[in-house]
Inverse folding.
């Protein structure tokens, strides 16, 4: 029997994602959904954005929108008080979950082992090769599929350590209670209205990240990718033939 006639070896099943990563992933997905939809419900009360400390009906906004439809918001009707309750409740859960994930990621070396850049990964040639492979939908295979590539690391680091903390701190700076406790916080962002504008922009950047993330999951093999984030078990893609 020739090598071409031999049966291909069965796919290798490996453990990919830690339990803490999987729990935080799905909790984060729930929190971001509730926070985004309830945030749009709050935004509908005054769908205009300003820079600086002040902004009201007669001030010129830098962005003016119509109210988002009911199907975008939580609850699915205009109810500012209820949108705020949903938003504040899940904001606390979201903030403490992020803090716990960061601390535990340091303890179990998830951040150092999986997200830290390896030697040579930031070289222009390496980055360009990753960009070109993504554009051609050539996803890593074999053992390489178990490691985040440089584009994934850049995006995850930006989301976890920049965008999500920005959401939390700009949200806190809009709270009258936090203004009394930490009056310096609102000055960091240049005023309450600036914080509100940054909060809105970052929310949509997270939506863009989510859409790209879902697209990549669909293209890479949704059943295998979703299973690995639920059970931790991942079918290792076979190496490409030479």
């Amino acid at each position: 029997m020739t090598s071409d006639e031999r049966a291909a070896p069965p796919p290798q099943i490996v453990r990919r994602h830690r339990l803490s990563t999987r729990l935080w992933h799905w909790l984060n997905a729930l929190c971001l959904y509730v926070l985004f939809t309830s945030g749009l419900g709050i935004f509908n009360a005054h769908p205009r954005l300003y820079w600086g400390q002040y902004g009201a009906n007669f001030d010129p906004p830098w962005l003016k929108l119509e109210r988002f439809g009911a199907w975008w918001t939580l609850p699915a009707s205009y109810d500012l008080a209820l949108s705020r309750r949903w938003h504040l409740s899940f904001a606390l859960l979201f903030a403490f979950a992020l803090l716990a994930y960061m601390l535990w990621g340091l303890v179990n070396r998830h951040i150092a082992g999986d997200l830290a850049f390896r030697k040579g990964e930031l070289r222009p040639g390496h980055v360009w090769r990753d960009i070109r492979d993504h554009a051609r939908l050539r996803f890593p295979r074999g053992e390489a599929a178990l490691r985040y590539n440089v584009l994934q690391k850049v995006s995850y680091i930006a989301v976890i350590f920049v965008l999500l903390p920005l959401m939390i701190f700009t949200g806190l700076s809009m709270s009258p209670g936090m203004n009394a406790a930490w009056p310096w916080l609102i000055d960091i962002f240049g005023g309450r209205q600036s914080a509100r504008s940054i909060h809105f922009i970052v929310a949509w950047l997270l939506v863009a990240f989510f859409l790209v993330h879902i697209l990549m999951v669909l293209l890479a093999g949704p059943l295998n990718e979703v299973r690995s984030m639920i059970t931790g078990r991942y079918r290792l893609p076979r190496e490409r033939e030479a």
